[in-house]
Amino acid sequence: MEVDWRILNETLSLLNSSANGYMFDDWQQRGPANSSCIRCAVVGNGGILHGSRVGAEIDQHDYVFRVNGAIVEGFEEDVGKRTSFYTFSTNTMRNSLNAYGEIGFKRLPQSQETRYIFLPDHDRDYLMVRAALTHSLVDRGRDASSRPTKFFGENLRTEQFKMLHPDFMRYLRNRILFSSILYSTNRDIYRASTGAAMLLAALHTCDQVSAFGFITPDYKKYSNHYFDKTYQQMIFYSNHNFKLEMDLWQKFHRKGIIKLYNRQ
Question: Which pathway does the UniProt entry assign to this protein (predicted)?
Fold first, then answer.
């Protein structure tokens, strides 16, 4: 899929610690002594969270997943403070920093517990991981000369990085979120949204999943993002099928597979 074999091989050979192969690599050290059940909060950026006051509930989970323009400062009461996993592609990360920098998203979440989960969308992702793990600049492509420490902070450790397998991403697209666009000439642009990939990855690894800030049938009542200063209408693009994703979250909620925050 247009990724040079040498880049692929060099990058994946650096993800060589046991922590890179497990989502919850620190569970034995931090897990509650009286429970083996991993409880996860997956936090989207939907406007439904504005004024929700569910931040404390989110932070009480064992792990907290966030995505893209995850602005926390100033919104802690609604979205919580913790970030265990930040999920993104290099493209969505750069777009989020450019789009939301002026309203508070100036860097990625950084804490002792934070891990970074790359979605393998392009060779940009492999190049960024390689540069981060070798403490060097990105040496080619659209992000050439970029310094990963600008995004992830200093003292990067191999254990902080994870990457979803491309076959997992294809599985999400072709099986769980199959759309009629896959029969068209535009099939190559379609994929699960970053938030959907994050939520579905959590469903494959956590014992209990609570989803906050995801699209619901009354989405028109809320602004696009919880951090919007004025009402912004949600826009639908061809590369994702948000209404299909919405129907899936509703089905999962009704069947008790996830607990979806619906505001009511």
Answer: Protein modification; protein glycosylation
Q: Which amino acid is at 18?
A: S
pLDDT of residue 236: 92
Spatial CB neighbours of 214, under 8 Å, sequence gap ≥ 6:
42, 44, 46, 48, 195, 199, 245, 246, 249, 260, 261
When divided into structural domains, the chain yields a total of 1
Containing structural domain, residue 67:
5-15+38-221+245-260
Structure-token pair, residue 105: 């998203």
* pLDDT digits 0-9 by tens, 197-211: 999 999 999 999 999
CATH number at residue 203: 3.90.1480.20
Q: How far apart are CA 196 and CA 254, in angstroms?
A: 18
262 Cα distance to chain centroid:
20
Q: Within 10 A of 258 (CB to CB), how many other CB atoms are there?
A: 23
